[in-house]
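From the pipeline queue, job 12 of 40. The input is one protein chain; the requested action is below.

Action: predict structure.
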Amino acid sequence: MFAAANNLPLSIKNGSNQDGYKPEDFNSISDYYQKVALTTGASDLCTYDNVVQLNDYNSAQVGDLILVYNDEGRAHHTQVITKVTENNIFVAQGNFESFWPRMRDYLLDPKNTDDPYSIGYKGANIQLGIYFKIDGDYYNTTLGEMYPKYLFNSQLGFYKWNFYGFNP
């Protein structure tokens, strides 16, 4: 929405459109957003040059991304950095709801679990968290849950947006 409001070029590439979806190809920004949200996952961000990897978390700035990888090396979760201080990294993330609400919604509308406009959408409200650089702990402030040493012991990648790739 920021890019549209400021007439900035933006093209998000993913597995369903490797050339990239562009707002001008849609009737409205809302239609563009829905298509990108429906077809783009965490793995698409790093696979299709939407982002550029940073050296480590000390290089991260506001607006950069943290991608969380599974044991197979595939990015499956995204966090957006909202604030950086000397000792902390603050993030916002969209988690999935617990299993049973997602299963109920899937049974109601199985084809639309990735569509933010569907009753079956599996996304949840935005949650906030803090990484503590000193000990590596991660604290989800929305849920009140602590993950010890998550910054150091998890497979995390730190990325900035590839603004040069948005306007091919």
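Job complete. The chain has two domains: 1-40, 53-163.
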